[in-house]
Amino acid sequence: MKKVKKLLSDHKIDGYIIPKNDEYFNEYIEPSKDRLRYISKFSGSAGFAIILKNKNYLFVDGRYTLQAQLQSGKNFDILTLPNKYPGSIIKKKYIIGFDPKLHTERGLKILFRKTKCILKPIEKNLIDRIWKRKKTIHVKKFYKLKDKDVGQSSKKKLKILSNILKKNKIDLLFVSAAENIAWLLNIRGRDSDYSPIPNSYLFVNQKQNVYFFCKKGQIDENLKKKLGNNVILIDINYLKKFILKIKNKKIYLDSLSCSIFYKNVLKKNNSIIDQQDPIYGLKSIKNKTEIANIKKAHVVDGIALTKFLIWLKNNYNKKKITEISAQEKLLKFRKKNKQFKFLSFPTISGTGPNSSIIHYKANEKSNRILKKGDLYLVDSGGQYNFGTTDVTRTLSLENREKKIKEIFTRVLKGHIAVSNYKLKQNSSGSKVDSAARKFLKKIKLDYPHSTGHGVGYFLNVHEGPQALSKLNKIKLKEGMVLSNEPGYYKNGKFGIRIENLITIKKSKDKLKFEDLTLAPIDKNLINKKLLNKEEIKWLNNYHSKVFFKLKNHMNGIELKDLKLACSNI
């Protein structure tokens, strides 16, 4: 930290901002680019630090407040977004330095809008100047998905995009979000441990010509042919030079993922439209082929998870099962299916007080044994060539506490309220989020995260623009996939969360949610007296569906336990 403080003086700045993301703005980044973790020890997937000459601040959202306190509380003041922003604590007219490749203009405006700070771009990252590490360069090849597996060819997608550009009289769209490039060209990569992301940049014009920038060697001759003659491949090292040659054009760039660095280069000789990339909206609506494939992914994933849940219930009292050994066992169950590619995010496997840490990651130091009387929370997901999954179950390890049963049942009521929500043509995530919290709020409880996030198609497990959150006003449309995950967390005691993925389908000209996830909900934690007839009917129908879809994939003992787990209450 002393070295960073010295660099502040050298650059004549009062502070420096360190974000979690790398230059591609992906959620999960490689360790050699995790500058925030290096400086703060915080390992969560979202947050940023501000280092001042005499103070250090770490900003995280409600999922990570407790984790950040445990990991970074010695050297940083922990502040929770959106309750606290830099404007809450920086009152002086400081000069704050930042790396222009790691921030968007929109992002910095939101963070510093209520401060008097002057923001100063510094092209050489200050953390890179002090962090001595080996940067391993792995060139991981991109590959193309078959049109029959994605339901829409890249040619059709380019035509839709071209029409948007023509309608708005825009010459070029600069696509800076790798997830959007993956969708547009129907390609995937392996530039993230948890998402099949192809780190790259792309320009597309009205004539559907594509200028595609990636590392040398990521596209072989076979893929080059599949992409077609309209896709021109260029080494990513030439991106700045290419941009400088573009002149007098109207360029659409993404306010969510185009860095200040590239925006500044683009606007030197061109007119800029700085808005959300239209691909986000197109990508959020899954076609019929994608929905059908996502359902297949949930059957495969549901088999693995359900076998694990049955195994765990039958063995935690007989064997020494820890948080780490439990998550390793779950991974083994998933790996038994050849269609499983890799995890969609780091598994959250927490028991007792650790389950109260919303995005907990078990390590050798924190690793607890599953014990009778505790709760066990497991939040996990898989990537398959035909879908992405994300599911949370909370299990009773013979817990007898009436208060915990009441809270679990109220969380379940919120979960059912989302699933049964009567969607209208203009329904947004904020209204659904409110319905999910209602039953906890009756006993003055709540949870510090959104009720749900969008989910990609064999892509990012967290995907916008739709979400079930307090501030999300995006209209919910047919074909969208979201999570439904209300919960409750008693600091240092226990955590509860019930999560299914849901999709929006049309039935008799009305929109409704349909559950995708297939795994039993632990009935041992339910107080039936708190459920009304409609909620009991939902639970019985859901369990009937789980049993019907999974029964043929269970062995004798598993089938008996599945039948019991899915029986009517």
Count of DSSP E strands? 27
Order of strands, main sheet, comes to 4-3-2-1-5-6
Low-confidence stretches: none
- Kindly provide the radius of gyration, computed on alpha-carbon positions and rounded to a whole number of angstroms: 24 Å
Distance between the termini: 57 Å
Class of secondary structure makeup:
alpha+beta
**What amount of the residues lies in strands?**
15-25%
Q: How many alpha or pi helices?
A: 19
- Output mean pLDDT: 95
- Report the helical percentage: 25-40%
Describe the structure.
With 569 residues, the protein is α+β, with helices and mostly antiparallel strands. Helix content is 34%, strand content 21%. The strands form eight sheets. Strands 4-3-2-1-5-6 form a six-stranded mixed β-sheet. Strands 12-11-10-8-13-14 form a six-stranded mixed β-sheet. Helix 14 crosses helix 15 and helix 16 runs antiparallel to helix 17. The N and C termini lie far apart (57 Å).
